[in-house]
Amino acid sequence: MLGKKPAAMQAQGGEPAVGGYEAGSGSNWNGWRAKQPPKANTGEDTVEAHIEGLAAALGMPTNEVASAIASAVRAYVPPASLSSIAAKETGEAVRVLLQEPSQGEGEGAVPGVAAAGGSASGKKDTTGKVVEGIVTGMEAMPPSNPHLLLHTTISASEALSMDVPEPPLILTEPQAEAIIHKHLPEHRQSSVQKLTEVKNHGYSYTSKVRTYIVDIAPQPSESASLSTNSKPSSCFITIAHPPPAGHKPLALSNSLQTTHHIISLIHSQTDIPIPLPTLDTSLSLPSTPSIPNSSKEGDKQPFPYHILLSPPSPIASASILSVAAARRRGILPAQSKESTLIELQIGRFLGRLHANVQNDYFGRVRAPNWDLNLKPAALARAQVFAPATQEEEESYSWQETFTALLEALLWEAESTGAVDLPYEAIRGYLSRAISSFLFDDVEVPSLVWLTGSEEDVYVAVDPVSSTSSASSSESTRTTSSDSNSNPDKDTGSAPPPQTPPTSSIAAILPNLTHALWGDPLLETFFHPPSPTPALKEAYTQSGGQELILFPRQRTKRLWYDLLL
C-alpha cells in the first residue's frame, strides 16, 4: 500500500526489476524499456511498481525518481485540473524540471525540484528515460478514472520518496526564550517561567503544527524598576516545518505564512480580538548560553522551524482554559449565564468574519508569492514551471471547489484504509447532489475558519482552580524543566475546579491551518446540534446571513459534516 515502505528492488544480477522494467545503469535505452507493461488497473501497487521500476532501470534511488514525479505533477497540475491532465503532459513537466540546475547551486536553485536529474549537467539521456518511462507506464494502465490515477501517482511518489519521516516538532525552553528575546524588545532580559504545549482535541488538530503557551517571568532586577513587566504575562508560540519550495498540497493545509496573512486580513478588516502575530521564517535564532551547542552569544544558530509569535498578554497560562475543557470539567454548564455570554461573543465574531472578510474566488487562501519562501530569482524560476496555476486555481464555483476537496479526502481515506466507509455509495450520492446543484447557492466567498471550535477559544478562570486543569493531559502538557511530574501522565483525577470562568473571551488560538474561502455554513461551530440560539442570534445581528432557510441546505450541511 502507499503508506508502506517499498520492497527492495531487484536491480542487480540481470534479474527483472519490479514493474516489468529491466534493471540497468541508465546508459542503455533498451535496458529499461518495459518487457511487459504493468497490468491495466488503477491499483496503488501498479503505480508503486511503475515508479520502483523506473528507479531500478535508471540505477537511481527510488526516492529521487519519486520526488521528481511528485514535484512535476504538483507544479504542473492544479488540483481542479487533475481529471484532464494527460500522461504526456506530466512527462513534459518532468522534462522541464529535470533540465533545471540542481538544488543548492546559486540563488536561483529551487530545492528538491531537480532531484532526479542528479547534477547540474542536465543529462538528456536520463531526462528522456524518466519522461518516456512516465508516459509509457501511465499509458499502459489506462484508468477508468484519470482523476484517481493522478492522485494515486502523487501519493505513491510522495510515499516512496520519504526515506525518513519529518522530525517531531519540539520547542525547548531555551529556544522559546531566544524567540522572545529576538522579537519582544520589552522582554529581552526576561526568562521563560513555564512552557506548555497546547493539546488540541478539536477538528483543527494537525500533526504539522505545534502551539505552545509561554509564561514570561521578568528578571528580579527588572521587576523592581519596571512595573509594566512585573505582572505575569504569557504568549503563544506556534512552530511548523517550512513547506518545500513550490509545494502546494492537495489536502487543505495552510502554512504559517498563509496563517499570518489570514490573521492580517482579520486584524485589518474586523474588530475580532485576535492580535497580529510576528512571523519568522529565517530558520535561525540568536545564540544564548542556555542553548546547548550554541556559539558565542550574539551569533545566530540554526532553527529548523518557521515561527508564529503572538504578542504577550497580561495573564498567566494558569488563568486561562479552553471553552471545551471548561465544559468537560463541568465548570461551564451549557445553560449557564457565562456560557450564553461566551456564545454571544463567538456568534458576533463569526458574523463579522463572514460579512467583512470576503474574496473574489473560492478555495485556498493564498499568501503573497504562493507561500514560496524563496528569493526573487528562485521564485521567478519556480513560477515558470506552472505559469497559469494561479489563474486555474481561482474557482468561481463553490460546488466545484467543495466537491474537489471532498473527492480528494475520500480518495485519501480509501487508499490508506484509514476509515471504513461505503465509498462507492458516497460517490453516487455526491453525483446526484452535484447534478442538482446542491452547493451552487453560495455567491460570495467568505473567509471560513472551518475547523475552529471551542477547543481554540480560551476564557479566564480562577488561577487556583485552573491549575489542576492546566496540568491535565486532557488540555495541555507542561514542558517546564522544574516540573517533577510525568508530562504525559493523565492527572485528570485531580478534583475539578468549581469556580466558573468569566463571561469574556481571553484568547483565541492562532490556529487557522484549514481556513479557506467558502460557504459560511461550513464552519464547525454550525455542526449540529449547534449553533445554539444565542450564537445564532448574535451571528445574524453581526452581519451573518441566515444559515438554513430551505430543506436542501440541511442536506448540504450533512455533506459538510462528512468532510469534517
Structure description:
By secondary structure, the chain is an alpha+beta fold. It has three domains: 18-160, no CATH class; 173-330 and 459-502, no CATH class; 363-451 and 513-563, no CATH class. Helix content is 37%, strand content 11%. The protein contains 17 helices and 14 strands. It has helices spanning 44-58, 62-76, 87-98, 124-140, 146-160, 173-183, 220-225, 256-269, 323-328, 337-356, 376-385, 389-392, 398-416, 423-435, 463-470, 533-541, 551-563, and strands at residues 191-198, 209-217, 233-240, 278-280, 284-286, 300-302, 306-309, 320-322, 363-364, 446-448, 457-460, 476-478, 505-508, 516-518. Helix 1 packs across helix 2, helix 1 runs antiparallel to helix 4 and helix 3 (87-98) packs antiparallel against helix 4.
Q: Helicity, in percent?
A: 25-40%
Tell me the span between the first and last alpha carbons. 25 Å
Q: Estimate nothing, just give the exact number of structural domains.
A: 3
Number of alpha- plus pi-helical segments: 17
Protein name: Aminoglycoside phosphotransferase domain-containing protein
